[in-house]
Amino acid sequence: MKKLKFFSKLVFIANSLAAFLLLISYLLPYVPPKSFAILSVLSLGVPLLISINIVFFVYWLLQVKKQMLLSLVVLLLGWNYLGSLYKFSSSKKVDEPNNLSIMSFNVRLFNKYNWKPNKTTKEDIIDFIHRESPDVLCIQEYSRGKPIKLNGYDDFNGRYVKNVKGGHAIFSKLPIINSGSLEFEDTNNNAVFVDVVKGNDTIRVYNVHLQSAKINTQIDYINSQYSREVFLKRVKWAFQKQQSQVEKFLEHKSKCSYKTIVAGDFNNTAFSYSYKKILGDDLVDTFEKAGNGFGKSFDIKFFPLRIDFILADKRFKVNGFKTYNDISLSDHYPIKATLNLNK
């Protein structure tokens, strides 16, 4: 570092900080938010930290400086993280007999309060679902009141938390033989589940909506309304609530012997404690198996945030995955996975 010019020294100091933070972030999936909440907040910034370290690596590489090794080594240590952030391969799509398609979509109450200026957003969402026609549809923030009519779905399981504006529903083209709800305490969030029959198999499908920090994601709004202290306080609180919700979910899931699919809005990234615990040893992230690009599922400017997931039992073959980030019907983008039990 002694041979570096003053500006390069400043760059390397910034590089060292970014590399250190990324290295620390590798511990996040193993640190319960209740034990160290402030560290868990860092999980939201992991995509940015990875991108920054790639930029630093390229910067030093172009100058043929050995300082490039710092970010390179840290990135290589977290190689598995890169697969969660970005998939270089094209989307996989395999058509096979007995494929099963699962869609997850946070519809934001079907635009009940006119967040989107388009007055036909509700009808547009319904038309989109009819076009894609998944076998099982998991909806978060399903509005109360008159049930939504979806052609081709003979049954659905809607469960609501008491005294809130919306809930969550599962629509199915497959026979539902059992259904239920996990009521999370002191929150508008919860999880619902159904057991569906396909051929000779009974499959458990969970629709999970974990705690949100309830923060407006517009950068100018955050800068004007939220101090850094308030922002951190809200996120820490949300992640601690998520831990409790995940613990309740895992206790419920442990009693099920069926092949399981977990879909929903986790309100956290693939670098978080909540995601890691839900994924466990028996599920796979269908985006990592068959998706491509960043898989951005939340509408926030200049930031590839993936907080919606479809996790499937390892006994399924993942034949496809798609993120519909070319449509703007909610603050989330719908995602769909295609699975098959034929080995």
Widest sheet: strand ordering: 3-4-2-1-12-11
CATH fold-level topology of the largest domain: Deoxyribonuclease I, Chain A
N→C terminal distance = 55 Å
**Top CATH class of the largest domain:** Alpha Beta
The secondary-structure class comes to: alpha+beta
Mean pLDDT: 89
- Work out the count of structural domains: 2
State which percent range the strand residues make up: 15-25%
Low-confidence stretches: none
Indicate the overall shape.
globular
* Main sheet: strands, sense, barrel: 6 strands, mixed
Indicate the percent of residues in helices: 25-40%
What is the string of SSEs from the N terminus onward? HHHHHEHHEEEEEEHHEHEHEEE
CATH architecture of the largest domain: 4-Layer Sandwich
What would you report as the Rg, rounded to the nearest angstrom?
21 Å
Tally of helical runs: 11
Strand element count: 12
Q: Assign the CATH superfamily of the largest domain.
A: Endonuclease/exonuclease/phosphatase
Transmembrane segments: 12-31, 37-62, 69-88
Protein name: Endonuclease/exonuclease/phosphatase family protein
Keywords: Endonuclease, Hydrolase, Membrane, Nuclease, Transmembrane, Transmembrane helix
GO molecular function, one term: endonuclease activity
